[in-house]
Amino acid sequence: MSEGLSLSAGPKVAVAEYHAAHGRFPATNVDVDIEDSIQGQFVTDVRVIPGGVIQVTYGGAEANEAIAGKALTLHAVIDEDTGELSWSCDAPDIARKHIPASCVFSDVGR
User: Fold this and answer.
1) Which end of the chain is more exposed for a tag (fewer CB within 10 A), N or C?
2) What is the pLDDT of residues 33-55, one digit of tens each?
3) How many other CB atoms are there within 10 angstroms of residue 4's CB atom?
4) pTM for the structure as a whole
5) Which of 86, 61, 85, 56 is nearest to 73 (CA)?
6) CB within 8 Å of 25: residues ≥ 6 apart
7) Structural domain range at position 31
8) Please, are residues 108 and 88 in contact by the beta-carbon 8 Å criterion?
9) Average pLDDT over the chain, rounded to whole?
10) Do the domain assignments include residue 82?
11) How far apart, in whole angstroms, are the C-alpha atoms of residue 32 and residue 89?
12) Which of 3, 41, 19 is nearest to 87 (CA)?
């Protein structure tokens, strides 16, 4: 699971920069000049989807069956008072025991 969070680091920066420059969130990887598909050993895809969301899909020959074919989403959250951007995780189909402690959950996306 931690590989997905690592691979999402670049897209998180790109989404934040896009929001700062345009006042809205990008809808796709193309909007933020990220190659079409980011993959890893246990991750089949990392992509920007509408609403300031980054979707990490797990899979591949070596992926644990508990996470294979399932997705973790990272939701950009803007603090209304400070304007600060933070990230919230959502992974309704993945048991929390498989998700790194660094992944902060909220009601966003649920």
Assistant:
1) C
2) 997 789 999 999 999 999 989 99
3) 26
4) 0.89
5) 56
6) 15, 18, 19, 50, 51, 52, 53, 76
7) 2-98
8) yes
9) 90
10) yes
11) 21
12) 19
* Assigned domain for 106 exists: no
Residue 71: which CATH number? 3.30.700.10
Q: What is the pLDDT of residues 78-103, one digit of tens each?
A: 998 998 999 999 998 998 888 888 88
Single out the residue of 74, 37, 27, 77 nearest to residue 59, CA to CA: 37
Name the token pair of 44: 């089949």
- In a domain, residue 105? The reply is no
What is the distance in angstroms between the CA of the first residue and the CA of the last residue of the chain? 20
Domain count, the chain: 1
Over its C-alpha atoms, the chain yields an Rg (Å, rounded) of 14
* Alpha carbons 46 and 4: distance in angstroms, whole number: 8
